[in-house]
Amino acid sequence: MNPHSPRDERILVFAPHGRDAEVMAGVLRRDGLACETVDGFGRLVAAIGEGAGAAIVAEEALHDVDSAGLRTWLERQEAWSDFPFIVLLGKALGQQSGTRERLGDLGNVILLERPLNAQTLRSATVSALRTRRRQYQARDVLADRERTAANLHQSRQELVALNETLESRIDERTRALAQANDRLMNEIIERERVQQAMAQYQKMEAVGRLTGGIAHDFNNLLNVVQGSMDLILLMSKDEVAKGRAEIARKACQRGGKLTRQLLAFARNQSLDLRQTDIGVLFDGVRELVSTSLGSRIRPRFEVAGDCPPVLADANQMEMALLNLAINARDAMPEGGELVFVAACDQPSPGLLPPGDYVRIAVTDSGEGMAPELVAKVFEPFFTTKGVKGTGLGLSQVYGMAQQSGGAARILSEPGVGTTVEIWLRTASGIEDAEPAPPAHLPAVRQAARILIVEDDDFVRESMVSSLEALGHTVRQAPDGEAGLRALHAERPDLLITDYLMPGMTGAELMQRTRAMFPGLPMIIATGYADMKAIEQVIGDGVVLRKPFQLAELAVSVGQALDRTRQDCAH
Ligand code: ADP
Ligand code: MG
Asked: How many Cα atoms within 13 Å fall on the side-chain side of residue 195?
């Protein structure tokens, strides 16, 4: 329904007799009104239906027509519409039967009597059209109102739908946010964990390098002291001096053990696992433990009669037992009980895979630890002792047990005491047994020409005098290059070289020597704890662990010379 449609403004003129219609239309057109004449009642009804402003109808034209169609249309008009008719009356209104009723049916009617003057027609028409225009306005207002109502309805429905889904959408959004938050938290935790692990790794690296450097130099010094003591023992006739030298030599041995542990820690290397008897181990630490515990604590050592030997690095085990004893002492400032027990046992599931194990338990009656503490104390550098603690004692115990194929565990109750368990695998067979270093110098079976390559002057001099004291002819070189030159000058019977030297390493020198003189016996001396790795590099050479006793040097020299002799015999 277009309010500006020209059709809605047109005036329909229905006066079928004579020229009335044309005349009237002419008058109105001159006034600027849109006029259309229609030539039949049917046509009139159809035109009204199509849209018009008003209709001018001659009364006589309504005689003898079937007005049902018009009536129906008028009845069905919309609420705003009351279509205006102007009826031109004949001289004798109501002469025809039913004309009055018919006029009443029309509803909104202006009656004009004939004869008609132009002015009357004009003002009646304009008035009818004005009425019709007001109806159009009402129509537009209604349409507007309907549109608004429809919009309102739609908005209301949207609001209802929104309300209905709001809760589920809030839930959904909350869930999504929670998930995002979880992801973020996990990432933060993971990043912190990685950073902590990184920091821990760097700390261990730094400590390791520092320790390694010190231990290496210290090892060389010990070597010199020990070599000199060996010489005094060999040559001196003064029994008192020899006694002192023997004590110094033992101290060097202990120092050597210590530096080897430091090196092992520094380089995080594989342990020297060998068949170890717990009884012997306990005997070895008994005195040291007693001394470090003080007089208020009397340690007891108990080894089950059927306790088999275990696979362990004896030095590391000694250190572990000492660490545990010192921890127990710290936990019992007023004194108390400390028991070392070893027996064959079955580990509880989860601790270790099934197998044959020995359980070594160190139990004190000290202050004990709360469960939260137990969870942390194996960590390196964890201590509750402030500057007095290192936090490395239990981490050494833990690392050593793990690397030995065993495990470590703490059982503790605050106020009652603590048991630290070390579980170790039993040694199967005697495959790993190693002869103990000889306490006395073996007889020198054959004097040999020996070349020593060693960068440390002290160590080199000490080795030279030791070997000369054993009756060998010795030449020396301070590095690999000089060593090669000496080899070119004359083939020795044996090459002894240090492993770690500036420039060419001992391993490289051995390779080049082997190319020059295949089968030449060689000994490599090293303070490094990772013997297996070195053994791989140097092939069939003999490894001599620093610091060594003169007797050990003599044995290694004998072994190296023997090995070649056997090779030659084959
Ligand atoms: P440190 O002894 O240098 O503190 P450890 O690694 O040996 O480092 O021990 C870590 C911590 O474990 C100690 O600071 C102490 O709190 C606790 N701890 C260790 N052994 C015992 C024990 N036998 N009784 C009670 N607490 C102990
Ligand atoms: Mg400790």
From this structure: 6
389 Cβ inside 6 Å of ligand 1: yes
CA proximity to 254, closest of 287, 232, 279: 287
Over 90: is that where the pLDDT of 488 sits?
A: yes
Structural class in CATH, domain 6-136: alpha beta
What are the residues facing 544 on neighbouring strands? 525
Backbone angles phi, psi at 381, to 5 degrees: 70, 5
Q: Do domains 274-425 and 449-569 have the same CATH topology?
A: no
- Model confidence, pTM: 0.41
If one counts every other C-beta atom within 10 angstroms of the C-beta of residue 196, the result is: 10
Return the residue whose CA atom lies nearest to atom 4 of ligand 1. Answer: 383
Pocket-testing residue among 378, 394, 416, 420, ligand 1, by greatest number of atoms within 8 A of Cβ: 394
Q: How far is CA 44 from the centre of its chain?
A: 89
What rounded mean pLDDT belongs to the chain? 85
Q: Which 3 state secondary structure label does DSSP give 89?
A: strand
* Average pLDDT, integer, range 551-560: 83
Residue whose entry in the numeric block shows the structure tokens 């108390």:
336
**Tokens 């102007």, located at residue:** 86
pLDDT at residue 452 tops 90: yes
Q: Considering the domain delimited by 274-425, tell me its CATH architecture.
A: 2-Layer Sandwich (3.30)
State in Å: Cα 417 to ligand 1 middle. 12
Domain 449-569 bears CATH identifier 3.40.50.2300: yes
Please give the average per-residue pLDDT across 64-84, as a whole number.
87
